[in-house]
Prior knowledge:
Elements lengths: L1 E2 H4 L7 E2 L1 E3 L9 E4 L12 H6 L4 E4 L10 E3 L3 H12 L8 E6 L4 H12 L3 E5 L2 E4 L2 E3 L8 H13 L4 E5 L2 H5 L8 E6 L7 H4 L2 H10 L4 E10 L5 H7 L3 E6 L6 E8 L3 E7 L2 E7 L5 H15 L4 H8 L10 E3 L6 E5 L4 H14 L4 E5 L10 H11 L2 E4 L9 H8 L8 E3 L3 H11 L5 E5 L6 E4 L2 E4 L2 H10 L2
Parallel strand pairs: 3-4, 4-5, 5-6, 7-11, 7-12, 8-11, 12-13, 13-14, 14-15, 19-23, 20-21, 20-23, 21-22
Antiparallel strand pairs: 1-2, 8-9, 9-10, 15-16, 16-17, 18-19, 24-25
Amino acid sequence: MKRLNELYDCPYDVEINDVKINSKQVTPGDIFVCTMGVTADRHDFIDEAIENGAAAIVVSKDVEKKKVPIIKVENTNKELFYIAGKLYDFPQRKLEMIGITGTNGKTSVAEILYQLIGEKCAYLGTNGKKYKNHSEMIRNTTPDVDRLYKYFSEFIDNGCKTLVMESSSEAMYWHRLDDIQYDICILTNITEDHLNIHKTLENYVECKSRLFSLVKENGYSILNSDSPFFDTVLKYAKGTVVTYGFKKEDTLYIKDYKEEKTLNITFVYKNKEYFVKSSLLGNFNVLNIAASILACACRGESIEKIVKKIENLKQIEGRFEVLDFHQNYTLILDYAHTTDAFNHILEYLNKIKKGRIITLTGSAGGRERKKRPAMGKAVLDQSDFVVFTMDDPRYEKVSDIIDDLLLETDKKNYIRIEDRRQAIKYALDMAKKDDIVLIAGKGRDNYMAVEDQYLPYNDYEEIVKYFENK
């Protein structure tokens, strides 16, 4: 909490409780910053912010006099960093910052590191914000600056020293992270995604890559050498560049791995061979574990201690999460929503299956229609049966989205059930002994985006209800 004349050289001795850029979220005592978006100019919402109790307004345009102080600056988007930083005593400078980016795998790597680093570590990403015994879902993978800095301050107030955070390409596109200096940044992989925002793959890769330009001089850029965009990311990378992958010249070289009841990995680090086993299954987790080990090593931790900790990793919520309700088939909850993610998961499931693979999926509305046909084909080709349903349709018709998913295939091994609750019930009802049911797309999300509303909804809760009512 600060006073306005502590934030600015001005005569206004007004108490400021918080900073907001959404006029609807303003509460009494907030300072409202009129940032500019592609389609939204928040100068248009000044009156609403004042009605909701704004104590002061920050603008970059001439506006008429209001009943609260008006502070004019050159660029409100850039000013937001200063206000949020000053209000919360620049919390981003007090945390060890670890950023993870990638199309797939960033949640898994972030959650693995959160477990490995321990009680003085906080997590921020798709699975919410977490520290110690606190866990809370949030709307965006990487929130806007006003909320982001508030969360940083909350972590510090609760004794956290390190933050592992997922850094989305959308956050880089909107420059939400420009005022952060990272101790470590990690690249998992890059495949085509979010082109509704970035328009081209080149723009998407550039946004992902820019994160590594924010690494401190004495920090580390940890890169997956097997990424097809490795050379592009490398051009941006600051600090010491280290790599992980299947090449002998990698800093952490994955020599071999076997998928049994546990995932068994042999790797080489500083000319010494190590063996690690993990209950996290799937070949896609080999690279996730390798990235996490290398990050801990860069922090100065003993590899021997890291290996022991990895043996005790808990399942990651909504990421290839195997659910046990004493059923006689395998039930998996996952966030997969790209062709690449489905290819990795279904390839693995086809290796281990004894019965059928039943996949439930959809595709988010209002974005990336072009990716749908390839994704639908991949799912149908590699599943025995598919239940197509809704997944955040927004303003699109679910039937139209499913039509898109079926454009590149003439297979008939599917059913269309638009209501996701009913679709889950159908998939679980049809499962027989030794089948694998994959519920994909939303992981542990706690909402369904329909038109402009975020309606309460959670796949895991629906699955729990199904077994409670059996």
